[in-house]
Design brief:
By secondary structure, this protein is α+β, with helices and mostly antiparallel strands. It contains six helices and six strands.
C-alpha cells in the first residue's frame, strides 16, 4: 500500500525538520498508513495538524486515538510518536517494548533519527493506538485494550 500524498500544511511542517528527522518521521507516517490499511475496522485516516504537528485520526471509524509525529522537547535529537497521555498506551508500550524505544512520560515513544526503524514493535504500537477506542468499547475483545494479546495480533 502506498501512502497518500502529504497535505500541503503537513508537508510544510515536515519540511522544517532537519533532514534525518524528516526522513524518519516520513518513514513512521508510511507505517501508520500501512498499519491502518491492514487493520480491520480502522478505515481511512484523516491527516491534519494538531498542536502544529502532523496528526493521524480515525475520524471516520472513531476506532482509535490520535497519533502525532514530531520531536519531544526533552529529546531534541530523536523523533517522537505522541499518544494521548490519558490512555494506557505508553505505559503498556514501556512494559512490552522498553528495549526498543525510549519514552517521554506517558505521552510519547522516542526513537533515533538514524539506524534501523523498529518496524515490528512500532507497528504493534500503532495498531494498538488505531484500535484503542474500538477495543476499549468491548467490540468483541475480551482483554484490556492494550493487553499483551492485543499487542501481538
Amino acid at each position: 500500500m502506498t501512502s497518500p500524498p502529504v497535505p500541503a500544511a503537513v508537508a510544510a511542517v515536515f519540511a522544517r525538520q532537519a533532514e534525518a528527522t524528516r526522513t524518519r518521521l516520513l518513514q513512521v507516517r508510511d507505517l501508520i498508513f500501512l498499519v491502518a490499511g491492514e487493520t480491520e475496522g480502522v478505515g481511512p485516516l484523516t491527516e491534519t495538524l494538531k498542536w502544529g504537528e502532523p496528526a493521524y485520526l480515525t475520524q471516520a471509524s472513531k476506532s482509535g486515538t490520535t497519533i502525532r509525529l514530531g520531536v519531544a522537547e526533552s529529546a531534541p535529537g530523536q523523533c517522537a510518536v505522541f499518544f494521548n497521555c490519558k490512555t494506557t498506551l505508553v505505559p503498556t508500550f514501556r512494559i512490552h517494548f522498553g528495549h526498543d524505544f525510549a519514552f517521554e512520560a506517558n505521552r510519547a515513544l522516542l526513537m533515533p533519527t538514524t539506524g534501523a526503524l523498529p518496524t515490528g514493535p512500532l507497528a504493534l504500537c500503532l495498531r494498538a493506538a488505531l484500535t484503542y477506542h474500538r477495543r476499549a468499547a468491548g467490540s468483541g475483545a475480551t482483554s484490556h485494550p492494550t493487553s499483551t494479546a492485543s499487542l501481538r495480533r
